[in-house]
Design brief:
Elements: H1 27-71, H2 74-86, H3 88-93, H4 100-115, H5 121-135, H6 144-154, H7 158-182, H8 186-191, H9 201-228, H10 236-250, H11 264-283, H12 288-322, H13 324-336, E1 341-343, H14 348-352, H15 361-369, H16 376-383, E2 389-393, H17 397-400, H18 403-412, E3 413-419, E4 422-427, E5 453-456, E6 459-462, E7 472-474, E8 479-483, E9 491-496, E10 504-510, E11 530-535, E12 540-543, E13 559-565, E14 574-575, E15 578-579, H19 582-585, E16 619-620, H20 621-625
Parallel strand pairs: 1-2
Antiparallel strand pairs: 2-4, 3-4, 5-6, 6-13, 7-12, 8-9, 8-11, 9-10, 10-13, 13-15, 14-16
Helix pairs in contact: 1-2, 1-4, 1-11, 2-11, 2-12, 4-5, 4-6, 5-7, 6-7, 6-10, 9-11, 9-12, 10-11, 11-12, 16-18
């Protein structure tokens, strides 16, 4: 859609929206843009899927041609084609609106043009163009197929081999320089920098084991072709480097955010190997059992992959179909919600309706973690409720949203619904900042909670509107103030309990410190060591801060307010029973045990008496009670 609108796909500066990354070269995007022009945004989805599905069949046809031409065995070619389409990763991926099947078809088309010798100039140039087109569909296709083409030609005509390398390399480099210059470096930033993500050996191991469970027999056939048939196999000069290059590309599946599309070239390489093995076994005319054994092995391999597809991928499809009604409800919610919407797993719901993407959460989260992107502008937009809704697919949220983004969402948005494992957040209704006391409350409010209130360790976090050190914190009632010598960001006030005549009670105010852990926002009237100093209700105590308890680890600007029973005039070193603050402030919030998210600040009806919250372990003053985070 952005391409159709004439917008730059490869922006070098993501300081302003849209915060999106184009991870791949533009060829497939240009094809889908044609679908947008012809059929509109919704029709383009179907158009792109059809292109991918047809590309899978074209890739299979190319494999048939490659193996048949090299071995002169039609059955071997059919085995290679059938093997590719039987791989569960190919079956699962081929109908998706993704770049990979087109890239695979283009690369195999280039190899198919080179397989027949002698090679005409026309086929040579066409093959180079197809290999270059594959690279500019998905950049990882610059390895396996060009390497296989070079080695194949090297065995037949070394001048053609180096000529192909020069032509493909020259075209690719020229296109890169043109695109990078036209986008002021954005092309490199998007397809290279933004693709250098965290690599995990455990992720690689899991995918390798999964591939083995799906295709053990094709793997064994590939190894046999690679190491035992090099003298006879007429395809060895192409199949061996293609298999090695495809394996190297597949190993990058260890990157965070990778999927089975990283395995498609490996599937094609193993399909060629299986065809080569069948051709060799059929050439051993005097050994019938050998031919039968390899044919049975291929049949078992096809059965193994079909079983894997039915057992695992079909289950996944059933799960998706079971969520179809919920997804339609989610689609209706998107259609009915005016204004910009953020989404991750189901960003397609936005583009189906012709709505622009504001953010690709996974991509920018990885850039932020690598220090390649400043998320501050987005965080400020979240705090200002600039988005009409935010839809987060919870199972993968850790990879797609930074902790700071999630904190800003919790602070400024409320959880409104949970649809098909998607949490739907809507902006919080902000009460007026001038609210000082709820009707019928025994105490006034300790400060601004216009951004919401959240339960935290038996107390409440009040999130005010404004920067740290600027949002006032007030005494909730008359009393005697204490600030012990080691209290950097905390004061406590001893009151007469308004709900239990004759009893005493403490109100405690924490998080009145700067994020650097050095500057205190407590009013200068209350220096460290202050004890039993009379204060009045509404007297300024200090300002909300961002101290998290750890240096250089900023929290959101807030006040932590808690209530404790008192036993004597001195503040105790440990508190076991924090009291429910709601009856004193007359707030209407969901109970602590039922809600750990931020809630809107709402006044309620007075309660008869405070309730005690049982705490299993005593709260140590220096590490658990003050401050609460």
């Amino acid at each position: 859609m952005r391409l159709v609108a004439g917008q730059n796909l490869y922006r070098a500066d993501l300081s302003t929206p849209p915060y999106t990354i184009s991870n791949y070269p533009p060829l497939y995007v240009m094809v889908v843009a044609l679908g947008v022009k012809l059929f509109g945004p919704a029709g383009a989805f179907t158009f792109g899927r059809v292109v991918s599905a047809l590309s899978a069949w074209v890739a299979a046809l190319c494999l048939y041609f490659i193996v048949k031409k090299a071995t002169r065995d039609r059955l071997a070619g059919l085995v290679a084609a059938a093997m590719l389409l039987a791989f569960p990763f190919v079956t699962y991926w081929s109908p998706l609106l993704r770049i990979d099947m087109l890239a695979l078809a283009l690369s195999l088309g280039g190899l198919a043009l080179l397989i027949e010798q002698p090679l005409s100039t026309r086929r040579f140039v066409a093959a180079a163009l197809l290999l270059t087109a594959a690279i500019y569909t998905r950049q990882s296709y610059a390895l396996a197929a060009p390497l296989a083409a070079f080695c194949w030609l090297l065995g037949h005509n070394w001048k053609r081999a180096f000529g192909l390398a020069a032509l493909v390399g020259g075209l690719s480099l020229a296109l890169f320089l043109i695109l990078n210059l036209a986008t002021n470096g954005g092309f490199f930033y998007n397809i290279v920098t933004a693709n250098v993500n965290e690599f995990g050996l455990e992720r690689l191991k899991w995918n390798a084991e999964n591939f083995q469970r799906a295709a053990l027999l094709p793997l064994l056939l590939g190894g046999f072709s690679l190491f035992l048939l090099w003298r006879w196999n007429p395809l060895w000069l192409l199949a061996a480097p293609y298999l090695l290059g495809a394996t190297a590309s597949a190993a990058t599946i260890g990157k965070i955010g990778s999927n089975v599309n990283y395995l498609l070239e490996l599937c094609a390489a193993l399909s060629i190997a299986a065809g080569a093995v069948i051709a060799w076994s059929r050439s051993q005319t005097e050994i019938f059992t050998l031919r039968a054994a390899f044919l049975i092995t291929v049949a078992l391999g096809l059965g193994q992959m079909t079983h894997f597809m039915l057992a695992e991928k079909t289950w996944d499809l059933r799960e998706r179909n079971a969520r179809l009604a919920d997804l339609r409800r989610l689609q209706a919610l998107v259609a009915e919600t005016p204004g910009p919407i953020l989404a991750d797993e189901y960003m397609g719901l936005l583009t189906l309706q012709g709505r622009p993407l504001v953010i690709q959460p996974f991509e920018v989260t990885q850039l932020s973690r690598d220090g390649q992107w400043d998320q501050t502008p987005l965080l400020e937009s979240l705090r200002q409720n600039e988005f009409a809704a935010i839809i987060i697919f919870e199972p993968w949220s850790g990879e797609r949203w930074t902790p700071e983004m999630r904190a800003a969402i919790d602070q400024s948005y409320r959880l409104a619904d949970n649809i098909a494992e998607n949490k739907v957040y809507l902006p919080r209704a902000r009460p007026t900042a001038s609210l000082e006391i709820c009707p019928g409350a025994a105490w006034r409010l300790p400060g601004d909670g216009s951004r919401g209130v959240k339960w935290n360790n038996g107390g409440l976090d009040f999130f005010g509107q404004g920067p740290e050190g600027k949002i006032p914190v007030y005494a909730v009632a008359d009393g005697l103030l204490t600030r012990q010598a080691d209290w950097f960001d905390t004061v406590a006030i001893l009151h007469d309990d308004p709900l239990q005549p004759g009893a005493k009670i403490w109100s405690v105010y924490s998080s009145l410190g700067a994020a650097n852990g050095l500057d205190s926002y407590i009013a200068p009237d209350f220096p460290p060591g202050t004890g039993n100093l009379p204060v009045k209700a509404g007297q300024l105590l200090g300002y909300q801060g961002a101290w998290s308890g750890k240096p250089l680890w900023r929290s959101w600007v807030h006040l932590h307010f808690a209530v404790f029973s008192a036993d004597g005039a001195a503040f105790p070193s440990a508190q076991v029973n924090p009291l429910d603050p709601l009856p004193y402030l007359n707030l209407a919030l969901q109970p602590q045990a039922e809600n750990s998210h931020q809630q809107d600040l709402k006044c309620g009806q007075p309660r008869p008496s405070p309730q005690l919250f049982f705490r299993k372990k005593p709260c140590n003053l220096t590490c658990a009670c003050f401050p609460y985070y």
